[in-house]
Design goal:
The chain is an alpha/beta fold and about 400 residues long. It has 14 helices and 14 strands. Bound molecules: pyridoxal-5'-phosphate.
Length: about 400
Amino acid sequence: MAIYLDHAATSPLRPEVLEAMLPYLTEHTGNPSSLHAAGRRARQGVDEARETIAALIGARPREVVFTSGGTEADNLALKGVAWAASGRGKHIVTTAVEHKAVLNAASVLERHGFEVTVLPVDASGRVDPAAVADALTERTTLVSVMAANNEVGTLQPIAEIGEIVRGHRALFHVDAVQWAAHLPIDVDAWQADLVSLSGHKLGGPKGAGALFVRRGTQLLPQLQGGSQERQRRAGTEDVPAIVGFGVAFGLVHASAPEREAEHARQLDLARRLREALTDVPGLTWTGDPRARLPGTVSAVIDGIEGGDLVAALDLEGVEISTGSACTSGSTEPSHVLLAMGIEPHVAHGSLRITTGPTTTSDEIDRAAAILPGIVARLRGGVPAPLVSA
Ligand code: PLP
């Protein structure tokens, strides 16, 4: 069995989640908009998931809008608010380290006449709340800042930023897709108006996410059609996926002691991995050393290509990720690392190892034993074995 250390990309479906989903794929297959018994049964599954998630983030059930995932939630938040509030102003503030779902949605808005301020971050990937305050103008309608970064794990001072935005007329959107897999959410403590969530990052299925939309928030729906999700997101709900998302969310968040114990366990796994890699030549840790997600180990290694390292480790049965996005065969340095001031040639050598609930200490030991040798080989310029086309 391969050692899977890429939970920030997606975290395997939990067995309890699969079990909860199965009846909705086989028996309760009605359309939740149908009035008959089959429809009502499906509706019940969706409603239960909505209630679970709402209760665990300090929201009301009607403030939870189910989407197809984090990307759609981010797009709905940015475009939905920007267009709905465009009569008041057309200025949006975000940061340079956001997920592309936010940055590319903001770019589209820019092409449609909105002004977008992209705030810089410091070397650890953290945005300065004072910079948010400085960026706000009369025309600002939305501030979007992620809670935890998906590449380097840095946590942002969300409550502080929320306080600043609250004192202004703008709305506050938080992408909590990575945060929600490890840390509790209280939408009031953050003073957030919109919060994006995704099921598959926390042991749920792919294809289900949610956007918390605070009561009274004006939002222009991005999909036109039926009146599902209180007319905020048209389209027949993916009932099994939503049910699974609700159960997965409950498994992570329902018991604070269990979540904290798991947090401590993953912190320890990450610490052990870091210790084992400290002597790797040319390695620099990335992200904030303290304010970070527990299971994220991220670094750049001078003189190697992250993609080569991922491929070499894959051959050894260890699955990790690089911070670089592969676009049509060519590897571009990560926008997150560049924003943190890392030189493009160094950013090419990025690696991201992310643990999750299924990660064992034995797996960490095995990965730690393999990694330094592979890095040494790659730095020595020994090419990866040729694969004939
Ligand atoms: N936001 C962040 C911070 C993420 O890490 C991701 C996933 O990579 C997304 C948004 C998009 O979520 P999804 O894969 O559910 O569309």
